Amino acid sequence: MQIRINLLRSLKPHSSIIFTLILFMLLLFHTSNLKFNNNGLYNILYAKGKANTLRDNRAENDVITNNKVTQNEKQVTNKVVILTFGDIHKGQFTNAKPILDQYGFKGSFFVPCDMVGEDSRMDWNDIKTLYNERHDIQAKSDDNLIGLSRDKLDSEVSQPKECLSEHEIDPATITTFAVRHGNAVSNSTVINTVAKYYDMAINGFSNLMRLNCTGYEDQPNPQKVGRGELAALITTPRHQTDCRTFFDDGSITDANRYSIREWNHNAKDMKFDHNSTTIFNNFIQVVNSQSEYNSNNGGVVNAIPLIAYHNIDNNTARSSTNIELFRAEMKYLHDNGFKVMTMKDLGYDEMSNHLYVKNIP
């Protein structure tokens, strides 16, 4: 740059206009180089993603930098995902929330009231902050619901909504209940109790939740109670055409609005021994699997991946998802045009017996 300026100074004074013009062009060129270099540095930092916290730095860099999918505007409108957070771990507030805030994402946080304020859990100030910042606050049972007496079951299901309402969470927004362990898909007693107080329930596991509730007849429920391992809890030859809760013979359907399925991130954290590269690849496959069901014309949404998180920390515990892995997953959703919804954006059409999307942010 200095050599160029010295050369220009050798021009005669009557060339001042030309000198000014050329100097302006050189400065413009120099600024564009700086901008390019800064973008290059950003890409390098993003590719590294503080890679020293990841198990395989080189593979992780390859995974993160090579998986941006180009989408046109119409295709982007029907790529959706719901992010759920269970059991109010403090790491959801201290580690996950700043990352969600960075991308303008809102999560659905499921609150078991008896856990509030316990060691390593959120307190009511944290929960109210989430609520006031338009995150979705929903209800969850404190205990396993299977085998409870009717009175105890009714209390476990109704109490979280009452508790949240007492802490100034609008009861009209508390539409969804999360069944602990997701183990009541085929339990009509639990489902009938949940239906007394809520519009929907998260209960069971799958890569996608199809909004017409079909296709689950021969699909195993991929979680053993408390373990996150494969267990064939559902196998039936019956054919289902919509989301009604019971078949005509009175038996419970395989999927309905009280057995909305989610993808358990911690099951993969444990299965793959917290290997961030492998889990990240699996995450990408799951969130993109909706393309088989969602039309690219008009933004029609027929299936949604619900990604279920618990603690966001680097402790490699059963409930842990690595912080930098979570950051990479959120960045992937943002960079590839996914719209992040919450559970309150889902509705149920009593006429068609289908779930539907009320609003895409």
Features:
361 residues, single chain, 38% helix, 7-stranded parallel barrel, globular, alpha/beta, 15% strand
Structure in words:
This protein is of the alpha/beta class and 361 residues long. It is 38% helix and 15% strand. It contains eleven helices and 14 strands. The chain has helices spanning 2-9, 16-48, 57-65, 73-76, 90-103, 124-132, 150-166, 188-197, 265-271, 276-288, 323-335, and strands at 80-86, 108-111, 136-140, 176-178, 200-205, 209-210, 260-264, 303-304, 306-309, 311-312, 320-321, 339-341, 346-349, 354-357. The strands form four sheets. Strands 1-2-3-4-5-7-9 form a seven-stranded parallel barrel. The model is unreliable at 1-14, 27-76 and 221-236 (pLDDT under 50).
Largest sheet: 7 strands, parallel, barrel
Instruction: Estimate the helix proportion, in percent.
Output: 25-40%
Instruction: Tally the beta strands.
Output: 14
Mean pLDDT: 81
Query: What structural class results from the helix and strand content?
Result: alpha/beta
Unreliable sequence segments: 1-14, 27-76, 221-236
- Order the strands across the largest sheet as they lie in space: 1-2-3-4-5-7-9
